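WARN  no MSA supplied for this record, continuing single-sequence
INFO  ligand: zinc ion
INFO  echoing inputs
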Amino acid sequence: MAKIPESTIDEVLSKADIESVVGKYVSFTKKTGQNLFGLCPFHSEKTPSFSVNSQKGLYRCFGCGKGGNSIGFIMEIEKMSFPEAVKYLGDQYGVHVEWGEDDSKGASDLKERKKRVMNILTDAAGYYYKALNSNAGKAARDYAAKRQLSQKTLVSFGIGYAPDGFDNLYKFLKQKGYNDADLKDSGLFTVARNGNLIDLFRGRLIVPIFDAFGKIIAFGGRNLGAELPKYVNSPDSLVYKKKNHLYALNFAKQAKSKQLIIVEGYMDAIAMHQAGITNTVAALGTAFTDSQLQLASKYAEEVVFFFDSDNAGKNAALRASQMMLSYLRRMTGIKIRIRIAAVPNGKDPDEYIKNDGVEAFKAVVKSAKDVNDYLFSRAYDDNYDADSGLDQTKFQEDIITYGSWLYDPIKREKMAAQAAQYLGARSETIVSAMERAENDDISKKFTQDQRDIEREQNKEIEQRQQTSKTAAPKADIVTRDEMELFVRAVRIGPSLADAKRIARTDVLRKNDFGGENIKEVITFFLEHFDASKGVSEALLVNKLSEVLFNGMPAEKFYMAMCDKVPMESTPEAEIDMYKKTLYEVRGKKCSKELLKLQGRLNKEEDPAKKQELIANIEKLDKYYQLLQQKSEEL
Ligand SMILES: [Zn+2]
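INFO  complex generated
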């Protein structure tokens, strides 16, 4: 974990209020006490069990158990590391975040490795670019000319050529001083059976793949002829996860359009940019992913998809529609309009622009259908045959399936009403069938989500065990009483520092607790105890997020306990309950100690030591009586 000063973290947590941070992903539909409720973005559900408490600065889901502060929320939902999430929120809420040196060796090693890989990729791009303009690059230049790629396009997209041969790039990069391990990390090579590294791209036109900020993170290679495979692409690597990126987004975001056009391949995207349709991006795998939609939603209010008109393209369109609708059902706070376009006569966008011109293409974009209308047409067209007419059974099946994907009741009703005309059924009946299908789907997904969440949590637990500072066995042990005491101490907040209400001896201490981890948290809590307002729970949760309690992520254990410890009716009663709990915890410790001493006394033979033990027992017993008495007086 990187060293970001705690004051910065505290500032980010206080400025990035949980309601607005979460509100970008979740819309709240209900308010109960201090809690706002909405549908959980982390698991499938029909009624809201996800809550946000602005006063505490925490979120929590009663369905799947996820919970934490705004930094934790961003880590979960944006799949960011801790420092990345702090920086991300800092940028949005005007807090300057310094990236400190990494304090764990593993993290800084990884950072260094990533840096070296980025350097390799940049050097490789330079090599390919030069090769395109060398003698060897003639075939590639001819191919680019055949595809009508202009010189300007070749330059601005950094297009290059990987010459034929097995080790051209390898030799070039070795000469630059890179070692085999780093070259392997770059994803630019495959490993031969004898262990040698072989250039992945050979005899191909090379397209560098940039991230949203214009850094090269991978490459795509297009064959110059008809041989297969047509495309070879970088595999996922240390710096590249293809499902998280959109090709040409670094250029498209400069168009400052509220619309992003999404095409299937990078060659299409390049052609569209050249034709002046500069708000185009391309998906980087066979399937469009939810991370890509999330990324798109940061730059646009509307996405227009072009899928190939062959069967594979049609299937991809259905898959993407289902995925996007299911994603938007969860992320109720993300508003993005989804439209699906079809180029006439089954051409691809590139071809169509070349033959029919940019204006005709813009008209196609304009006529793109909203996803619900597209799905209706699909259900109809896929099951209609000129000879036998509409296959009603299949049409009905498809309509119910597609309708169950629509989470917007108005769109669903509209689809049902349209379908009712063809099916001779009442639209209400169709809507209920869609709802049933939706419920089945949600309960199926719920089980799967639960499994995913469990798996994630196990990974998290393992990680915390590894980075744990204390190697003591059972360092994570916390009893129910101890946890209640801690929760109550946090709850009474400033009063804890008010000597008139709580005597110094009645302020909890590190040694009231047994386990190392809880001791560490208590130390943190007491050190940060600010006389005027107490430590913020969001910051406390930040500390808890480093350790385990009873084998569970500590912040989850803590938040679950907050719900379980009953609230008292007045602040005075809260203070009394705090004290009662404290006396109970101390009393239990006392009686355990007494038992131990008694055991020793029974075995002790030396009269002097016996006397000493008796004195100790008497002292402890007196203290125990005092605790009991104080507790009764409350
Ligand atoms: Zn949940």
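Residues 386-467 form one domain.
INFO  checksum written, moving to next record
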